[in-house]
Backbone:
């Protein structure tokens, strides 16, 4: 089987995301309510966590975990720590005595994440595995499995599995908010109804994103380094965008919190080092608006400094477009759904930058789909 009608599996899998998100959603949600068969085991895991969650993951999966940290804490009021799976195994259990341990892995076989799961199990923690392979070792060995329904992912760079993880972790946050009584049933129903519209909203934007990225990517052909910036839940997406560019296009890229740029990294900003600024906003969320205003202020300073900026902004945002060198637009969404939406144009950017450099984007050098040894 080949990737037709697409030139590469990575591009095909980017375009499959409306369908894979809808399939994952259908596993856990019926209309505007949770499905008891798949969600009740997760509810029991949440009850066994002791009111604290530790997430162990690597690579893109860890970035999904960083989004989940803020989402679960803000919506459910449950403290969350995110650790590199490769470091978890070598840390003491003294500070984790009352915690549920969540492992996130595309394959469910990643060596360091599996080692973290086994250490957590041996220490007596209730464990939850979010994987894209429901028959994987992690799914079998965890106390509870909460699979992603993205289907087999053939390209090495994670695309549809990553957005599937973000969606599943958002559902986990809503279940936790329900369990803690932080969100009333009517609000849970409203958020689930909003979520069911997301796959089609992404579908209607995908072709436009690809066209826009193909048009602007040649302008960055000579850039050798990129700085990706984001605040709040958008910071992990900045990191994910940078990782995609590294592994797909072999370009140096780093993701930073927007507010940290002036604390050192700004020394790197010069001609040939563009900034990629995540500047989306949920106008119904005062905290999101406050973050956006800070990003807007930073962009004014960077324009005065002469920096080249590629911004990701809400459709119709003329303030951001006036400051940026180039702008990619996404339709407005709620704050905790924006990461799922905004990462897709960044996946397309990595893809187009790679193919214009003649790189086999489905099989980047030195990388494998699942890291089976440390």
Residues:
């Amino acid at each position: 089987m080949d990737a037709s009608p697409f030139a590469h599996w990575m591009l095909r899998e980017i375009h499959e995301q409306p369908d894979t998100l809808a399939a994952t959603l259908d596993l856990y949600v019926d209309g505007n309510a949770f499905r008891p068969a798949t969600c009740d085991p997760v509810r029991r895991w949440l009850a066994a966590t002791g009111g604290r969650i530790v997430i162990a993951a690597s690579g893109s999966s860890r970035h999904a975990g960083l989004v989940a940290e803020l989402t679960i804490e803000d919506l459910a009021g449950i403290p969350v720590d995110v650790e590199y799976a490769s470091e978890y195994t070598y840390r003491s259990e003294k500070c984790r005595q009352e915690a549920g341990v969540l492992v996130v892995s595309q394959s469910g076989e990643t060596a360091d994440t599996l080692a973290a799961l086994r250490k957590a199990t041996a220490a007596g923690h209730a464990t939850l595995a979010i994987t894209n392979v429901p028959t994987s070792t992690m799914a079998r060995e965890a106390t509870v499995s909460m699979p992603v329904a993205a289907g087999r992912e053939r390209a090495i760079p994670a695309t549809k599995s990553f957005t599937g993880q973000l969606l599943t972790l958002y559902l986990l946050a809503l279940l936790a908010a329900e369990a803690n009584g932080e969100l009333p049933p009517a609000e849970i129903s409203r958020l689930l109804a909003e979520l069911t519209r997301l796959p089609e909203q992404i579908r209607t934007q995908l072709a436009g994103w690809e066209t826009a990225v193909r048009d602007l990517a040649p302008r960055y052909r000579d850039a050798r380094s990129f700085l990706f910036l984001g605040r709040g839940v958008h910071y992990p997406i900045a990191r994910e965008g940078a990782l995609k560019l590294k592994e797909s296009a072999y370009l140096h890229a780093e993701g930073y919190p927007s507010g940290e740029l002036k604390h050192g990294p700004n020394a790197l900003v010069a001609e040939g080092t563009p900034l990629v600024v995540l500047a989306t906003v949920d106008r119904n969320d005062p905290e999101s608006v406050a973050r956006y205003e800070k990003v807007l202020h930073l962009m004014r300073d960077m324009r005065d400094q002469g920096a080249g900026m590629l911004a990701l902004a809400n459709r119709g945002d003329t303030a951001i477009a006036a400051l940026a060198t180039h702008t990619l637009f996404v339709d407005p969404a709620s704050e905790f759904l924006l990461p799922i939406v905004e990462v897709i144009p960044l996946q397309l950017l990595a893809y187009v930058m790679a193919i214009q450099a003649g790189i086999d984007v489905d099989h980047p050098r030195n990388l494998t789909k699942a890291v089976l040894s440390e």
